[in-house]
Amino acid sequence: MRVWIDQDLCTGDGLCVDHCHDVFTILEDGIAYVVEDNQVLNDPGSSGSLAQVRQRHVPDVIKAAEVCPGECIFIEIDTPRDADLDGEVDGRIAARIDIRADLDDEAAA
Ligand code: SF4
Q1: Which ligand 1 atom is at minimum distance from the Cα of 26?
Q2: Of the residues 67, 73, 93, which should be mutated to test ligand 1's pocket, given the most ligand atoms within 8 Å of the CB?
Q3: Centroid of ligand 1 to alpha carbon of 79 (angstroms)
Q4: Between 64 and which of 19, 38, 75, 90 could a Cys-Cys bridge form, CB atoms 3.0 to 4.6 Å apart?
Q5: What average pLDDT is seen over the chain?
Q6: How far is the first Cα of the chain from the last one, in angstroms, to the nearest whole number?
Q7: Is 61 in the pocket of ligand 1 (CB under 6 A)?
Q8: Minimum mean pLDDT among 33-37, 41-45, 79-83: which range?
Q9: What is the pLDDT of residues 61-103, one digit of tens each?
Q10: Domains recognised in the chain with CATH numbers
Q11: How far does the centroid of ligand 1 lie from the alpha carbon of residue 100, in Å?
């Protein structure tokens, strides 16, 4: 799973950080950014800064997206294991989840 934030919509309330501080952070500008391997991905930000989410953080990232008041946490799912979670995803964030084609299936086609 990968995740990114549309900073233009972020309210800066920090709920995402409350749910998963390993994946989300608030910078000095008061806006949330994604984090990957302890590195803040703020350049360029938005969809240009996708963070890979470790499997253990997947439920917390989904929860953060569900409660995000800005509706600005976007998720990309691209592995069969991630896709298994699709049935558990709250309808509130379904529009912000992009399930990408399985790369193995594409290669076999
Ligand atoms: S929960 Fe959403 S609106 Fe709130 S700080 Fe995080 S990304 Fe921004």
Answers
A1: 5
A2: 73
A3: 25
A4: 19
A5: 87
A6: 23
A7: no
A8: 79-83
A9: 999 999 999 999 999 986 556 555 655 667 778 778 887 765 5
A10: 2-108 (3.30.70.20)
A11: 24
Q: Which atom of ligand 1 is nearest to the CA of 12?
A: 5
- CA distance linking residue 46 with residue 53, whole number of Å: 16
Quick check: 15 and 69 in contact, CB under 8 A? yes
Task: Give the pLDDT of residue 35.
Answer: 98
Q: Give the integer Cα–Cα distance in Å for 32 and 56.
A: 21
| Closest-CA residue to 4 (of 30, 37, 40, 29) | 40
